[in-house]
């Protein structure tokens, strides 16, 4: 069973790597510039463990409860867990104990809650490092999908950069639903360049999922977040 799943995952991983390689070749970029984040949400911890065995140790989740349980179960493996989903401030305390990076910081209030929670986790010995943060930019101003409006981005990146518990690493975004992702990723690239001028360490641009990672790489993505293309479909219940 697990041997079969392992072979399946190895095969889809090879396919995703080939797509990343081809997109980089097209864009004249070095594939070493593009991190692969496996989005393991809704899949069991056993799949996360197999991915780690296959060398994918950057894993992402979008719900605190599910992620905390997997991180606990796999605490013996050297996995870096990433939070990529919308989160409420009251989850900061828990997230600060399992996440190496949060990519979905979209308000100063959330940044402040995370900073406070990270401080407490550091003091308690529950984490050793500050929290890497990507600020999520909204590319379509649609309510409900998260993301900071582009005209509020500077103020938010400033709040993150000033915190000694948070490390501003860059920007993240999801393409608008049902629209051509290319212009949206171009807007993200421009915003990321502006951010980098103020904060030279903020070099990450997290963009691209199973359906649009090629376009995202063309527009400068340094981190693709891939679920379906690696692990299979999640069904309808779990966007
Ligand atoms: C689920 C999810 C992904 C992965 O999406 P796929 O289409 O399954 O590759 C990427 N980013 C975020 C924020 C997600 O919630």
UniProtKB/TrEMBL annotation:
Residues bearing the modification N6-(pyridoxal phosphate)lysine: 41
Keywords: Pyridoxal phosphate
Presence of keyword GTP-binding: no
Keyword Cell membrane attributed: no
Pfam families the record matches: Ala_racemase_N (PF01168)
Family classification: Belongs to the pyridoxal phosphate-binding protein YggS/PROSC family.
Function: Pyridoxal 5'-phosphate (PLP)-binding protein, which is involved in PLP homeostasis.
Protein name: Pyridoxal phosphate homeostasis protein
């Amino acid at each position: 069973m697990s041997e079969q799943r392992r072979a399946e995952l190895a095969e889809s991983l090879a396919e995703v790597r080939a797509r990343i390689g081809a997109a980089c070749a097209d864009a004249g970029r070095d594939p070493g510039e593009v991190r692969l984040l496996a989005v393991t949400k809704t899949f069991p911890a056993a799949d996360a463990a197999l991915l780690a065995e296959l060398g994918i140790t950057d894993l992402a989740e979008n719900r605190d409860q599910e992620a905390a349980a997997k991180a606990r179960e796999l605490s013996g493996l050297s996995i870096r867990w990433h939070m990529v989903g919308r989160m409420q401030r009251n989850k900061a305390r828990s997230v600060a104990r399992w996440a190496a990076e949060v990519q979905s910081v979209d308000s100063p209030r959330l940044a402040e809650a995370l900073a406070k929670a990270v401080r407490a986790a550091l003091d308690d010995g529950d984490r050793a490092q500050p929290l890497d943060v990507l600020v999520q930019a909204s590319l379509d101003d649609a309510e409900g999908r998260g993301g900071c409006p582009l005209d509020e981005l500077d103020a938010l990146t400033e709040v993150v950069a000033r915190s000694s518990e948070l490390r501003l690493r860059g920007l993240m975004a999801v393409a608008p639903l049902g629209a051509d992702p290319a212009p949206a990723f171009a807007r993200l690239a421009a915003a990321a360049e502006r951010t980098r001028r103020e904060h030279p360490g903020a070099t990450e641009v997290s963009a691209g999922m199973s359906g649009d990672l090629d376009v995202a790489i063309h527009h400068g993505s340094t981190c693709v977040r891939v679920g379906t293309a690696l692990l299979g479909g999640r069904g309808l219940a779990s966007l």
